[in-house]
Here is the input.
Amino acid sequence: MKRRIVRGIAAMLCAAVLMPATAVVMPGTEMVVSAEPLNESVKVTLEKQQTAVAELKALSIGKDLNEDQKNKIDSILAGVYSKIGYTGGEVDDESSYNTCQYTIQELDVYVNMAKADIGDVINPPSDDDDDEDDEPDPVVTPDHLLMVGGSWVTPVADAGEAVSIVLPVVNMGKTMVTNAVVTPALSTDTASWPFEITSSNYSQTIADLPGTDTGMSDMDRRRELTWNLKTRSDVGNGYQKLSFNVIYRDSDGNSQSTTLDTYIQLKGTAGVGADGKASVPRVIVTGFETNPEDVHAGESFVLTLHLKNTSTATSVNNMIFEIVAAVEGKDEDTTYAAFLPTAGSSTIFVDRMEKNGTKDIQIEMEAKADLTQKPYAVDVNMSYEDEHVNAYTSKSSVSIPVKQAARVDVSEPEVMPASIEVGSESNIMFNIYNMGKTKLYNVQVKTDSENLSGGDTFVGNLDSGATGAVDIYVTGQSATMDDGMVKLLISYEDETGESTVIEKEVSLFVTESMMEDFPMDDSMMDGDMMGEEGTGGKGGTYAAIVIGVILLAVIAGAVFYTKRKKKKEQMSLEEDLMELDDDSDAKL
Here is the structure.
């Protein structure tokens, strides 16, 4: 009968264990259920707590308990439920647990205390000792056990703002604790102590912490300490643990120590983690300007670089910028920097740049005179420090276009013949020399005259040092009424497409046709007029004139042919000489 009664009591106890925690919460305690989803670290802690609760439940299953033992396990389970906020659900149920009030180590102490109180249940007596079932074993209870009590909402600390940190302390031990000195674990490391250190002493004293043997509730035995602190401006974002060292005296007057932990939520600067470490501050070149706007080879210019500190978490200090121009040349003996600083130094120092700040730096440089027309890279090597004297290096580049002035020369044009009749042709020959460092594009020649037609020709592109030959024919359209000067328009484009026109003048007269001055009709062609009778009249005179004109044309053609042949021979000789010079340079 006694065994059946005890088993019935055990069954009732198991039913009580499975009931919601609201039925066993101790008077004076507070219950706050988090409405937020559980993160992984909290979930692990809660799983360990549920394991401890299950272990306590296992002590009462299948064991014979006397009345005193039943009362003890009820009390212990009620205390565990109230301290860890257990409501009887599953671990993943966000309503099953309150914010953890104990560390796992402290909870283990509590469970071990429960095991000690019902130790005879773990090791039940044999049947021979049934007569001694009514004699409970001595209760083993810690004399002192300091913990963080209550269910305080985690304080939120904004960067640079004041915040109050409340630490509720309760003695879950049996006997009185006195002269408890609580000191926060200060540190210059933001990851350990995210507040400004403005005092030499942050310790506070609790005169007494009553134990459970006083019969007082947990709320009545609790003592609260408050620190008014200022959050550092460089804190990160997230939750951070705060540790407090406690030194106290137990009921025997012996000195004891422990550490209490609580948590705070930090809302700091973007780009800073919860450990206080900021992301790497980046300094970049956002753009540049040159004065004058167009940089020409052989000329000086002022380079202005626009800089930006992209970090919103830290300023940068002790900044050194080294301006390094691109190196030209094919070997060590002929290499040189495209740009050289006029002051002799290519290093610039800047003392500070604020968070998300901008700054401009300037340096005067000179472009080498023999640079070809193209963009040249300029590297900007940067070294600087953040607010915590962490050193960083960075590199950016800009591209500066250099323009080379075109140098074009034209040989003296040769006109053959220099005087033509209306309807006749004349040949104009000359050379175009590219004497600059830049390439000439779309070279062409046009004739500007009201008395001539034709004469337009396309030469094409001329590389640096190249020669373009011009050989054009023009036709007389009307007699020259002025000084006979004819304009030759020579045009070309540079790499940017900008066009340039050079004018050259030649002398070329156009006269009226002699055949128009002496018209011949049919009567003049009659046999009588042509001197069939041998009298040598007017017919003979006109015949002589015609023959003279023909002779002059033949002579002019011969002279023209001879000069043109000599000109071509001369041009061929010049080209051979230039090729010979090029071969000599290549060999050198």
